[in-house]
Description:
The structure is a single chain. By secondary structure, the protein is mainly beta. It has one domain (2-19, 33-43, 53-151): Beta Barrel (Porin). The chain is built from 1 helix and 10 strands, in the order αββββββββββ. It has one helix at 2-19; strands at residues 32-44, 47-61, 64-73, 79-83, 86-90, 93-104, 107-118, 120-122, 125-136, 139-151. Strands 1, 2, 3, 4, 5, 6, 7, 8, 9 and 10 form a 10-stranded antiparallel β-sheet that branches. Strand 3 and strand 4 (79-83) form a beta hairpin. It is elongated. It starts with a helix and ends with a strand.
Amino acid sequence: MRGLAYLCIAVAASAARADSAGEGEEEAFEPHSTLGVFLGDTTEDRRDGLTLGLEYEYRLEEAVGIGFTLEHVGGDFDTNVLAIPFAAHRGRWKFYAGPGIEFSDEGDEPLFRIGAEYGFHLGSFELSPQLDLDFVDGERLFVFGLVIAREL
Length: 152
């Protein structure tokens, strides 16, 4: 699964270079919502877990959004995560941070998530490689994968 993270980063970097030529075209912005599914991996030291999630974002302005993320992390973790990220958009890049909660059998822990993604538009869908860093109970967990989203 670590190979998926390297692939996501490489694809995002090459697309950013290729996309910079077409950024001069601007359309009028209208507030909208986006709903997506996430498939990825969560790692921390030697622990690893398949991560499945649902993401929602409401774009208030062209450069500002707020949303929520619900994830289930299997494998060595077997936890659920709820995060409320605030997002800043710059072209196809999205940077976000926000508070959340990790739910597990051992108890609930507050978390803080920071992350970034780069969106590729494929018709009415967007495919976005994503890389997150969660701070939970003194640990740093890396979450990486792909989001497939659609504007509502």
